[in-house]
């Protein structure tokens, strides 16, 4: 049996695969080695991992924050918890590329709490424009959409009816918003939660323009840096891409780019990838 994990900023999805099918799945909190140490990761696994560990021969972990400097911490935690040495840790971007493109060249993108993109040559990530996080980059992400929404609301740039509905839906003071953004941990998660409100009002011109502008910035500042972008499909995974598909299609068409697959999450594609790899 192999265990595949797909971890974002908010949650980790775990799937056990045996033979040619997925037999178990569960969710835990997000495991990001950029923010969590070995003991904290082990604590999450001990409390929240609900599946059996017996019989697992390999672990393939894909996640946010899995940069080379941080992967040893996660690698050691996974080895200790599952009691095996056959552990691989990869970035969430490689998860997106393998899931969306399998073994074919393509541009693979993530639009979720954060955003990212790459040119995948069918085997490895050959090019990557740094996302830079939600303060300097992450265009088109849930965090940036939430940031733009809150900024427009607090600076009275949106219709009064939308502002009234916002504070009726979320009874918070502006000071609380600032506290969550500037002083509390995980401001990206806090900001991204407001994509539900954005989706609720997506047919309002001001709100739809906010979303389409952010997607346009993602295309302009990221996708247009890949030489192959006009000749191969551009694929997307992530909740923002999935739920704002119509706005994304509009932005891609306006840019003259070919839209490929849109998947809410990469897990099913990852399972297909690893099952196909075992055939060779």
Question: What do these coordinates show?
Answer:
With 280 residues, this protein is an alpha/beta fold. 45% of the residues lie in helices and 21% in strands. The chain contains 13 helices and ten strands. It has helices at 38-48, 71-82, 92-101, 133-136, 142-154, 160-169, 174-182, 187-192, 195-200, 205-221, 239-243, 245-255, 267-277; strands at residues 2-7, 11-18, 21-29, 58-63, 87-91, 106-111, 115-120, 125-127, 234-237, 259-263. A five-stranded mixed β-sheet has the order 3-2-1-4-5, sandwiched between helices. α3 crosses α13 and α10 crosses α12 (245-255).
Name some characteristics of this structure:
globular; five-stranded mixed β-sheet; 280 residues
Task: Itemize the secondary structure elements and their pairings.
Blueprint: E1 2-7, E2 11-18, E3 21-29, H1 38-48, E4 58-63, H2 71-82, E5 87-91, H3 92-101, E6 106-111, E7 115-120, E8 125-127, H4 133-136, H5 142-154, H6 160-169, H7 174-182, H8 187-192, H9 195-200, H10 205-221, E9 234-237, H11 239-243, H12 245-255, E10 259-263, H13 267-277
Parallel strand pairs: 1-4, 4-5, 6-9, 9-10
Antiparallel strand pairs: 1-2, 2-3, 6-7, 7-8
- Helix fraction, binned, reads 40-55%
Q: Please state the CA-atom Rg, rounded to the nearest Å.
A: 19 Å
Quickly count the helices: 13
Nearest-integer average pLDDT: 92
What separation lies between the terminal Cα atoms?
17 Å
Outline type: globular
Q: What is shown here, in short?
A:
Helix content is 45%, strand content 21%. The chain has 13 helices and ten strands.
